[in-house]
Specification:
It is built from 12 helices and no strands. It is mostly helical and 242 residues long. It has one domain. The longest helix has 32 residues. The protein is elongated and about 60 Å long.
């Protein structure tokens, strides 16, 4: 219900932007009205798939001391959490993603991809976005090894992921230099902007493949950083209360 309410509000704002651009013979950063409708509702659905917010499993286990059990298992904690996240994302794709998409399609004139290759490219992009988002959440949670309080970091992550991830508005609305800085300087656009641009078919397939390449690079880099941080934390870990 909450996703649908915010979806309605954001859709009307985006349609107003599209109408204003059409009135002067232009498009809204290359998106048509129906494409922006798809962008909004697919984005609402992907919030629960990539799970931008709400994951505090590692931080909670660090604070309680239960993380010691994870360290005694033969599976690396990073990949153990990642495997569980993949299962959660697959289930969310069938539930959290499908409902907003159907809701948006019933109320508005929604764009549907015309190129058959878009659908598998979108699924690959969603998988990469899930990995990137998981790694960012893991790193944010891992600060609890040293801070013991995740709330401040969690609030900063919520603002960053929504603003730089393309949830609040498409990154393409920004000047080209600012959009390029976000694409290549931060993992933000790889969270939502990339899969949404692939799905809306704003660009040709060469650009779509390029976006997937950027996502893959961030996924590899961030997973490596997760391992580095985890190893550093294990060397300095002090279990609270024990």
């Amino acid at each position: 219900m909450t996703n649908s309410v915010f979806g309605l509000l954001r859709t009307y704002v985006m349609l107003a932007v599209s109408a204003a651009a059409t009135a002067v013979g232009a498009t809204a950063a290359g998106y048509t009205g129906p494409q922006l409708v798809l962008y909004v509702w697919a984005g609402q659905g992907l919030i629960g798939v990539v799970m931008l917010w709400g994951w505090t499993d590692l931080a909670d286990r660090v604070r309680s001391g239960d993380v010691v059990i994870d360290l005694l298992r033969p599976v690396d904690p990073v990949f153990a959490f990642l495997a569980a996240d993949f299962g959660r994302a697959a289930y969310a794709m069938l539930t959290r993603f499908a409902v907003p998409m159907v809701t948006g399609a019933l109320i508005f004139d929604m764009y549907l991809p015309h190129r058959p290759a878009t659908y598998p490219l979108f699924l690959v992009s969603v998988v990469l976005a899930t990995v990137v988002c998981f790694a960012c959440r893991f790193l944010a949670n891992a600060t609890c090894y040293w801070l013991l309080d995740y709330r401040g970091v969690g609030m900063a992550w919520a603002v960053f992921s929504g603003l730089c991830g393309g949830l609040f508005f498409p990154i393409r609305f920004l000047p080209d230099w600012a959009a390029a800085l976000l694409w290549f300087g931060t993992p933000g656009p790889s969270l939502l902007q990339a899969p949404l641009d692939v799905l809306t078919e704003r660009d040709g397939w060469p650009v779509q493949l390029g976006m997937l390449g950027v996502q893959a690079a961030w996924a590899v880099l961030l997973l490596w950083l997760c391992r580095v941080v985890q190893r550093r934390a294990e060397r300095k870990l002090v279990v609270q209360g024990g």
